[in-house]
């Protein structure tokens, strides 16, 4: 195997153009030694060349350089890679040289990559995710981050730097399957990565010509941090700002816009970014902040977190998503696209079912709800509090009985329903076990003249994160909630559904 290592000094061997007069096209033959290989179909092109299907194998493609991109340095790197026989799962290293009919080096064979480009799928936010990965969860997204990091670690372990880390050089097949392409641009020993992407370029090398210096592991670690940030933030740059300067300017100044605790520049971009940011684990937000903000402990090139640090933190993040730890702290942390900022001091919604301590109590409550649904109007006349009832059971019976009373009022004289509702619930205490549930019914059952309906719903949805209130505020176009046609009309007929949501959500 070739001896790869992180090099500090650029090669002194001049980079010379390789003259070629005969470049093949789709349908033409190229040569692997003396073996002819047909370029069967053009798959795509980029800034350096064209990728073709071949008749060699469905899993093998050919990259043919444009004439002005054939150089001695590029061939030297490919020689090293092919000689070493490098094989990392998901990394499309060159495997064989390709020559034209005159025996001039023109490209190479490599494994076929599959999937969607990270930059045109995940980085496009909700639109991109819906189009390409519509069934993904937050756990899938973090799994993808771990997969990418693991692949980068394998590359670094060989003594190779990627150099031009960006969202277009990584293809995503699934959360656990990715492909790294354009591997011929990797920084190999004394041969630099001659290209770069502005958003991923570290402050200390902003404005430099990539062809004339070797990147350090610190430069690479900056690009890795940006890649992870953009992945978890669906394409937003860590240096995007509201009313600020351009990305390159902000990178050069270390002007990171996303706050950590009470620190920040108050320039965070408008949109959902603050929401996405707030639901990331605190430790991750801290590392990002200390890496991107000038003057912080991880900002310096030599102090930036490496791939192993990120792997450790992302693995913890993934485990806490999967075992429910984060959901207990922040219910929206498991959502792919949370819609409200996380506030650790915000009252937590706990369903009545989850307030009950024992399975036996839950079974009794399920039975009591079924009884109420079958009796409704007569339930309040038959309810009996047994000596052995728990406080939860007694509270439940009282609440269901009150609903039955209101239903009787509604059935008797619909016009006085609003008055009855207001009278019964006007002086509710925050300490009431069913405070939120009763407030919901107050707002919902009140007639069309009840002026506080909207504000009450908003209070429940925004302050308490109450699921059914959120649904009612943000009704989908088809006006379905969990498959049930749902409108504010015909309240009695929908009350069973409402009770199910109120008590068992």
Give structural notes.
This protein has 505 residues and is an alpha+beta fold. The protein has helices spanning 72-84, 125-132, 138-157, 217-232, 247-253, 273-278, 282-292, 307-322, 325-329, 352-355, 359-375, 379-382, 391-412, 417-425, 435-445, 453-463, 467-473, 491-504, and strands spanning 29-32, 35-45, 49-54, 60-65, 96-99, 105-111, 116-117, 170-174, 177-180, 480-481, 484-485. The chain has 3 domains: 29-111, Phosphorylase Kinase, domain 1; 116-334, Transferase(Phosphotransferase), domain 1 (Orthogonal Bundle); 352-504, no CATH class. The chain has 18 helices and 11 strands. Strands 1-2-3-4-6-5 form a 6-stranded antiparallel β-sheet, with helices on one face. Strands 7-8-9 form a 3-stranded antiparallel β-sheet, with helices on one face. Helix 11 packs parallel to helix 13 and helix 16 crosses helix 17 (467-473). The longest helix has 22 residues, at 391-412. Residues 447-452 have low confidence and may be disordered.
């Amino acid at each position: 195997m070739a001896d790869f290592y992180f090099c500090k000094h650029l090669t002194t061997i001049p980079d010379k153009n390789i003259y070629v007069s005969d470049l093949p096209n789709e349908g033409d033959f190229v040569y692997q030694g003396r073996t002819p290989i047909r370029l069967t179909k053009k798959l795509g092109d980029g800034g350096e060349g064209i990728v073709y299907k071949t008749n060699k194998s469905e899993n093998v493609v050919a990259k043919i350089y444009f004439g002005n991109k054939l150089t001695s340095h590029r061939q030297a790197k490919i020689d090293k890679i092919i000689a070493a026989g490098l094989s990392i799962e998901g990394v499309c290293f060159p495997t064989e040289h390709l020559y034209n009919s005159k025996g001039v080096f023109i490209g190479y064979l490599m494994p076929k990559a599959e999937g969607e480009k990270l930059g045109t799928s995940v980085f496009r936010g909700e639109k991109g995710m819906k189009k390409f990965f519509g069934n993904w969860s937050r756990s899938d997204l973090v799994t993808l981050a771990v997969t990418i990091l693991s692949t980068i670690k394998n590359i670094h372990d060989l003594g190779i730097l990627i150099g031009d880390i960006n969202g277009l050089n990584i293809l995503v097949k699934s959360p656990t399957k990715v492909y790294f392409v354009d591997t011929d641009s990797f920084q190999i020993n004394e041969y630099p990565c001659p290209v770069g992407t502005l958003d991923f370029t570290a402050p200390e090398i902003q404005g430099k010509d990539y062809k004339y210096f070797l990147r350090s592991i610190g430069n690479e670690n900056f690009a890795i941090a940006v890649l992870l940030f953009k992945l978890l933030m669906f394409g937003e740059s860590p240096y995007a700002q509201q009313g600020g300067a351009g990305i390159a300017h902000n990178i050069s100044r270390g002007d990171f816009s996303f706050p950590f605790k009470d620190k920040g520049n108050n320039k965070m971009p408008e949109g959902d970014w603050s929401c996405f940011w707030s639901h990331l684990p605190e430790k991750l937000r801290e590392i990002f902040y200390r890496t991107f903000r000038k003057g912080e402990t991880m900002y310096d090139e030599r102090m930036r977190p490496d791939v192993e640090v990120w792997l450790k933190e992302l693995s913890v993040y993934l485990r806490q998503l999967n075992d429910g730890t984060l959901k207990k702290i922040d219910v929206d942390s498991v959502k792919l696209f949370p819609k409200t900022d996380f506030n650790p001091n915000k009252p937590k919604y706990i369903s009545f079912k989850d307030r009950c301590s024992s399975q036996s109590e839950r079974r009794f409550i399920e039975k009591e709800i079924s009884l109420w649904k079958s009796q409704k109007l007569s339930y309040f006349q038959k309810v009996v509090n047994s000596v052995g009832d728990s406080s939860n059971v007694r509270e439940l019976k009282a609440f269901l009985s009150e609903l039955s009373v209101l239903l009787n009022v509604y059935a008797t004289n619909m016009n006085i329903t609003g008055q009855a509702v207001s009278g019964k619930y006007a002086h509710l205490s925050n300490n009431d076990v069913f405070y939120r549930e009763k407030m919901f019914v107050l707002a919902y059952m009140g007639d069309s003249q009840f002026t506080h309906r909207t504000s009450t719903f908003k209070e429940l949805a925004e302050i308490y994160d109450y699921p059914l209130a959120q649904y009612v505020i943000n009704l989908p176009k088809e006006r379905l909630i969990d498959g049930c046609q749902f409108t504010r009309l015909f309240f009695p007929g929908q009350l069973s559904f409402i009770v199910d949501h109120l008590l068992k959500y």
